[in-house]
Amino acid sequence: MSLKHVMDELNEILVFKEKMKILQEEIVKLETLITKINKELNPIVVQTSRKVNNEDLILELIEMKNEYLNESVEFAKLKRKIIKKIIKMKNKREIVLIYRRYVLGMPLTEVAKSMKITYKWAQVLHQRGVNSFNNIV
């Protein structure tokens, strides 16, 4: 497997985390809007100047929650796959670094601080960890 493919695989979990965060934020916005509408019991005018009734928003919320649920399942599968490979790695410090960086989504600078190592050494360990991850079948 090429190094680019390995990095794509590891970065995919970070992308999923961002997508989940965005979906969560949008769900909260919709829930807030629906709550407000329910209190007023009137259709509202949104930015596009068209009237949107409560049913449309509830359907949109249901669709978004279904999307979130589907994405959650895919995220859990990917996370499990990545973790299974990480725990097969041999070097403890590489395991910790790769886990914190990709599963927890910590920036490499924070990983270095949490491991009490320099950023430069974290970069070296990261490269070694990615290579070790790549060699796991």
Tell me about this structure.
The protein has 137 residues and is mainly alpha-helical. It contains 5 helices and 2 strands; from the N terminus they run H-E-E-H-H-H-H. The radius of gyration is 21 Å and the shape is elongated.
Could you give a short description of this structure?
The protein has 137 residues and is mostly helical.
List keywords for this structure.
mainly alpha; 78% helix; elongated; 5 helices; 137 residues; two-stranded antiparallel sheet
Write the layout of secondary structure elements.
Blueprint: H1 3-40, E1 44-45, E2 51-52, H2 54-86, H3 92-103, H4 108-115, H5 119-134
Antiparallel strand pairs: 1-2
Helix pairs in contact: 1-2, 2-3, 3-4, 3-5, 4-5
Strand tally: 2
Shape: elongated
End-to-end Cα distance, whole Å, is: 10 Å
Low-confidence stretches: none
Average pLDDT level: 88
Largest β-sheet summary: 2 strands, antiparallel
Count of discrete alpha- or pi-helical segments spanning 4 or more residues? 5
Helicity level, as a percent range? over 70%
Radius of gyration, whole Å? 21 Å
Query: What percentage of amino acids are in beta strands?
Result: under 5%
Give the strand line-up of the largest sheet.
Answer: 1-2
